[in-house]
Design goal:
This protein is α+β, with helices and mostly antiparallel strands. The chain is built from four helices and five strands, in the order αββαβαββα. Strands 2-1-3-4-5 form a five-stranded mixed sheet. The two termini are 24 Å apart. Bound molecules: tetrahydrodeoxyuridine.
């Protein structure tokens, strides 16, 4: 799979950052924005949505995946995640599993307020993943 060019990644970052600005995170005060890219070039974004019943929180990445599926797409070639933290935030374990369903080889790029950027394939972040193929 060819990785998106820098222009597309820049647009994804802008979308992720804007979505992160709409995060509902009164409990953690840790806004996250995500933008997923489909192989045909469409972008879908999401932000974290927390809840007074803390465990019901929905992460930004899973929000973006739900937007994608609701709009009729079911494949992910890349995801950009933005947080205003000093270090980049890799997707949590639950989000890795959900991303794997649609983009086992997706490029994952996490950008933060500092200079460090995390850039890995999902297959590196979730090796030997359980996925649709396991169900035959
Ligand atoms: N969060 C995400 O949105 N994505 C992740 O991959 C990690 C964590 C959110 C959940 C919660 O609202 C806040 O960040 C702090 O954990």
């Amino acid at each position: 799979m060819t990785d998106p060019d820098e222009g597309v990644l820049a647009e994804m970052l802008a979308r992720a950052r804007a979505a992160g600005g709409r995060a509902y995170c009164p409990y953690s005060k840790f806004p996250v924005g995500a933008c997923v890219l489909t192989p045909d070039g469409e972008l879908f974004d999401g932000c974290n949505v927390e809840n007074a019943s803390y465990g019901l929180t929905i992460c930004a990445e899973r929000g973006a995946v739900c937007q994608m599926v609701a709009r009729g797409k079911q494949a992910i070639s890349a995801v950009v995640i933005w947080t205003p933290a000093p270090r980049p935030a890799a997707p949590c374990g639950a989000c890795r599993q959900v991303l794997n369903e649609f983009g086992p080889d997706a490029l994952v790029v996490s950008v933060c307020a500092g200079p460090e950027v995390l850039r890995k394939r999902l297959s590196e972040l979730l090796p030997d993943a359980f996925g649709p193929a396991n169900l035959g």
